[in-house]
Amino acid sequence: MEQTPVTANAPSAAAPSSAAASAPVPEPVQPPDRPRRIGGVSRPGVLSLTGAAASALCATVLLYGELAPFSGALGFTLTAYLLFLSIYAVLTGFEEDQQTVRDRVMTVVLWTAATLLFSALVLVVGFTAWRGREALPHGNFFTQDMQAAGPLDPLTIGGIAHAMVGTLVMTTIALAITVPLGLACAVYLNQIPGRFSRFVRTIVEAMTALPSIVAGLMVYAVWILGLGMQKSGLAAGFAISVMMLPIVIRAADVVLRLVPGTLTEAAEALGAPRWRTVWHVVLPTARSGLATAVILGTARGIGETSPVLLTAGFNPVLNTDPTSGPMVSLPLAVFNFVKSPQPAMIARGFGAAAVLMALVLVLFVIARVIGGRGPGHQTKRQARRTARASRQDLARFDEPHAPGLTLFEAGSPAEASAPADPTASGEND
């Protein structure tokens, strides 16, 4: 039986496989990292929102119309919104991770809250302006008082000039008291920590929730009953300042805490005393925030009615003297106008409310102009003033080093100790 000889070339068949196994395997090419997009509008996001809204509306209609004996517009809206959030979370979870789902859902919730707040603001302002549209076009509404007008008189007679003047006078008195005291107290709480400052901060926080009628009763008992003074705009200004003071202190304290500590440390490292650091560094840096604090306090005090009713009384005649005689404000005038059943008086009340909102807006604009921009930003006038001061400083620095100006002409004290000119001595020789 013949055997097949084994050739020497037999192992060579396995050589290519072993060589291929020993060759380095190229690593797969990794795609470049792309930042995850967490904001903006995308097509899948729009489709998810639309689908979730449609599904929630259909499910709510089916639930309220066929499956359950539910009724009511408020319940329908809340049920549809909760179903919308749930369906939107499920649809987003098909393509994104859990963190992105939470981010998208919370974004929808925040946008919903912002929309509701803006809608409420537009509704209040629009409703007030619409109800007062009959009184606002008349010029006498802004130039006359109610001395010669009665409940049955048309809108062409009488106005709210006395209430506008009274509001401005009372607010000015309250601001003159509140702004210095409030800012000084906020600076004290921020710059001088300690037990007493914590006690003062606690008292300020407690005064924030003080009812306005209590402030009016306090001023009425002390100023009118105790001291025997008459009701006037000055007493109302005192009562309004009591309501404005804690708001200004708390808001200013929060703003002063946001000033970087490195600024004060740098000023004190240069040798500036504490009062100069506060006056030239802390307060200018927080100027825009302090203006906002004053605005918040003014908005709280300018709309108070009960303190003015107890301390200023009611006067249908224009009174510009805050120290004698009753004086009326716009909130109190609105309160008295809308109590009347006559349509003309109700229109005057809503017109006065619209003027009050416009007055708050004007005060807000004035405060923003006075407060200026934030730290590090200059207006055009400030930039021109800074550039002019820089040019003056540069000219003052370059003046002693002008060409052809000797030490004697410059008036330098170094001329006494300067050595004699050797060339001049040679000429003398």
From TrEMBL:
Keywords: Cell membrane, Membrane, Phosphate transport, Transmembrane, Transmembrane helix, Transport. Residues 390-401 have a biased composition (Basic and acidic residues). Part of the binding-protein-dependent transport system for phosphate; probably responsible for the translocation of the substrate across the membrane. The keyword DNA repair does not apply. Residues 1-24, 410-429 have a biased composition (Low complexity). The chain crosses the membrane at residues 46-64, 70-94, 106-130, 160-190, 202-226, 232-249, 349-371. Residues 378-388 have a biased composition (Basic residues). This is Phosphate transport system permease protein PstA. It is found in: Cell membrane. The gene is pstA. Residues 164-367 form the ABC transmembrane type-1 domain. Belongs to the binding-protein-dependent transport system permease family. CysTW subfamily. It holds the Pfam family BPD_transp_1. PANTHER family: PHOSPHATE TRANSPORT SYSTEM PERMEASE PROTEIN PSTA. Residues 1-37, 374-429 are annotated as: Disordered. InterPro entries: MetI-like, MetI-like_sf, Phosphate_PstA, Phosphate_transprt_permease. NCBIfam families: 3a0107s02c. It is a multi-pass membrane protein.
